[in-house]
Amino acid sequence: MQSYDVIIIGAGLGGLGCGYTLAKQGLNVCILEQGTEIGGAFQVFRRAGHHFDTGFHYVGGVGQGEMMHPLVEYFNLEGLPWHRLDDDCFEEVIYQGQSYRFSHDYDRFIETLVEQFPDDRKGITALVDVFRGISDHLYDSLRPDWNIFETDSFTTSAYRFFNEQMKSPVLRQVIAGGCVKSELTEQLPLYAFSQSINSFIQGSYRLQGGGGTLVHHIADQFKAMGGTLITRARVTELVEREGRIAEVITADGNAYTARTIVSNAHPATTLALIKESNTIRNIYRRRINNLPNSYGMFTTQLVLKPHTVKYRNRGIYIHEMPDIWHANYGKGSLTESLFINFAWPPAETDGWATTVDLISPMLWEQVAEWSDSRIGHRPEAYKEFKQRKADEAIALAMRYIPELAGNIEKVYTSSPLTYRDYTGTVEGSAYGIRKDCDALMQTILTPKSPVPNLFFTGQNLTLHGMLGVLMASIQTAGYVVGGELKLLNIGNS
């Protein structure tokens, strides 16, 4: 039986970040990953000589003086090949056929939107003031004495804020238009909404090699500090004895022990691994199991003919429905919102795109009838569904990027079923547990579980995305070492 100080379940960004932080503190850490590829939602796959990201597309605030830079410094990510998106338009939102621009820099962001919505300067400025306040106090959440209920933007609905502050109903839709990367509801906390756009205004960056570059860099550093990373090690059971997790059992029959267990898996998935417990009450299991999860994604990934489609150095968001806030994805046309992402092209292509991602939100209900199937063994009806979905996504994209027509060499697709099977996320959820400003106690989780030596980490705690997950990984590590990580002074250097 192999023994460690800490065992971490899952080599997604949260598990890797937590492992890195704990190894940096001198602990003997082992990360167990069920798949062959690390990274979770940040992993890549390779087809036809190209790599494709599964969840990482571009990220905000990594530059010097920007809000995520302290994390970039801490995880030693400064030297990675980051590439900044266009300052005058890092995101283009196309709402009902009309194009709107988001610009880098808070003041420029305000002025660009005011050009497009001249009667809403006050409301736009009020929103940016929220962004500035969050940025200034971002790392307060890593303090042991931080109280979420004292943070007004957590208890404020983004939807209600926009309705109160902004005159133009079109602006209320457009400002939310880039938030395919966050599920919009009337209960979405203003803080969570802000994290879907705030850091990007400061500076948006693509990473050459995508999410794979990021997670492998962290993993290499983790192993260099003595950490152990084992792939193809699917955890099948957490054995509780005397109120603590005593053993971690994997599918290959191996058993591991550790003083502390950290799970980067969804809390419901983690609890299901504990078959018998005198510590976890049924009422707690039911609460966790019944928490609503955010939607998943359907992704259509294209390999392009060489030198046919110009690279776009921005994110493009297309919305066909009139009300982005209350979209019920999948009714009528399968594609109602579409995010178009261009991967950073190799230097030798001289500004021509090589691959493009077409990403649209998808409710689990759309694929639930095939939930008993697994990769490589899907029924024909599911394959036909995916083909229709891909055809609709491509047709919509061609309306705004007409040169795609006739210049697509290969098409690859994935659905929430794919995400579920590769990453283990409940119902293929893209962003984990849905946050609710009216039910913070239920939807914002701390790293603590009812079992004293079992902790959670990852996107299901406070926030998703690279920023939210890395902060959660440090927060969880702080719980493991008893709060000593406050000495790191993250964000105060």
Task: Give an overview of the whole structure.
It is globular and about 65 Å long. Strand 1 (2-9), helix 1 (13-24) and strand 2 (29-32) form a beta-alpha-beta unit. Helix 1 (13-24) runs parallel beside helix 10 (210-224), helix 1 crosses helix 16 (465-480) and helix 3 packs antiparallel against helix 4. The protein folds into two domains: 2-43 and 56-60 and 209-291 and 434-488, 3-Layer(bba) Sandwich (FAD/NAD(P)-binding domain); 84-205 and 293-427, Polyamine Oxidase, Chain A, domain 2 (Alpha-Beta Complex). The chain starts with a strand and ends in a 13-residue tail after the last helix. The protein has 16 helices and 19 strands. The mean pLDDT is 90. With 493 residues, the chain is an alpha/beta fold. The strands form four sheets. Strands 1, 2, 10, 11, 12, 13 and 19 form a seven-stranded mixed sheet that branches. A seven-stranded mixed sheet has the order 8-7-15-16-17-14-18. Strands 5-9-6 form a three-stranded antiparallel sheet.
